[in-house]
């Protein structure tokens, strides 16, 4: 499903060279629910960006669904992101000027679906996240938890092969966080592969597998102790 | 096309868009009406005067000495001028087309003080007049040398026969302009004149007069103290003749001043100088307005791109290609421009109706409105291209940045 071999990512300026990822390797299988933990600056977001084709990496090999994605053009990357990957962001990243229907519609329009097909999918996913009755509302009229549910609906509308979640509960209180996590877990049980970056060891524990990153490398499968360390500091 | 969501999103944040649309509308209204005025002025400037402008020049002679014999001087001057190599013909006349100064009277088809006359510009010429001006006699006959009279400034009587332009014939006899020849018209309420000839075209001295082509030629020499000679040169010899004529007149009689020599080309240029300046000023105004509007569009689009950087990154993450982002901003601007030009079309017509009513301008040509709509939409697309291009380069990774 996802295979990274010796991925390196170096950010260069005139004065500084920062190695965000060093010989990073990871295999994720179809249906996995992987949590990625690590201290701040360890390279979690860089990993997520590369996994989601949001950034090009400096060196190494990355195969997504058996396809080498290192040499894709911008248009091809965009198409792969649109068709195969769903994103859930920490700050929800809903478009404030669009109602829920139009927000969920955004990736579907880029996919080129016909109007009726888009409508069917949007209503379906909003129903799944329990917000079908509020599709004409603006994001600002919803609570944080509801906004994240809309973001999840948007990610699911295109029926992606895998879902990338960047601190999906980072801006939610614990009750809402748990509700969102239950939804994510349910999506995983439906067969969608999920990679979730989180600081929260409790949430990381809900994944079937934990990957710990330190200094741009996979440290190991995260232990409870390491997760506790992440949580405190 | 994503017109629906773009429109809905814009309507939720519409102040900037409305202001730009209004700016486009006002620009269009001013632009179209200004172009219409320019067209009108250009048409006016392009009207032919009916005379051989390229080869005609004129010069004034003013006697100052006590023993200065004006009549003899004029007769001798004209004989000398007509004898000069390169001169086609020469006359004395009271005025020159488009010069701004001349005579006008009212002609009426029936005698009587209670009848309104039709305004007509008067040129006093002799039998050489038609040839000197290069006028085309359509009907009737030229004046003869014997019927040319000498007129003092205080005289009130008029010669019996006159030649008028076709336009004057149409004004006097709208139902039968071709039958004007030989008819009697009245000047000064009841003094009869016979129309002995009709010329195709000649303009009055005043280019802004609505009867500019209503002209009457009368066989007169004037004894007004100051006289003006009109000289028609052979093609290509005008500029060479001008200093020779000045020298000839100056040397022939030392009791007068010779001055104000000018070509008809200069006269035309001076006559329409105000119109030409207005065209330049309006062109500059239009360019300035379009530039300001384009800058407004650039400003709004740049602000919009900066404000929505995160949103653009999110769209990219969700699958938008660079081209899709470019298209998004171009479409957004197109919608704003479209609203602007539609409102602008209404404003344009309204402003034109006001100007037609108030300043008696002509109606805007119908094709100017769609042409301006198209031009402003294209200008908007060009203006927004830079910011839109910049938006398309926002990397998708911006979506995951927390700051």
Question: How would you briefly describe this protein structure?
Answer:
The complex is a heterodimer of chains A (233) and B (403). Chain A is α/β, with parallel strands linked by helices and 233 residues long.
Tell me about this structure:
The complex is a heterodimer of chains A (233) and B (403). Chain A is an alpha/beta fold and 233 residues long. Chain A has a single domain, classed as Rossmann fold. Chain A is 38% helix and 26% strand. Chain A has helices spanning 44-51, 74-84, 100-111, 115-128, 144-157, 174-189, 201-205, 224-232, and strands at 2-12, 17-28, 33-37, 59-64, 67-68, 85-88, 162-166, 193-197, 209-214, 217-221. Chain A is globular, with a radius of gyration of 18 Å. Chain B has 403 residues and is α+β, with helices and mostly antiparallel strands. In chain B, helix 2 (15-46) crosses helix 11 (368-392), helix 8 (273-307) runs parallel beside helix 11 and helix 10 packs antiparallel against helix 11. The two termini of chain B are 32 Å apart.
Looking at CATH, which topology of chain A would you report?
A: Rossmann fold
Query: What is the number of domains of chain B?
Result: 2
Major β-sheet annotation of chain B: 6 strands, mixed, barrel
Question: Compute the gyration radius of chain B: what is it?
Answer: 32 Å
Low-confidence stretches of chain A: 222-228
CATH-assigned homologous superfamily of chain A: P-loop containing nucleotide triphosphate hydrolases
Q: What is the strand content of chain A? A: 25-35%
Architecture of chain A, according to CATH?
Answer: 3-Layer(aba) Sandwich
**SS field, number of helical segments of chain B:** 11
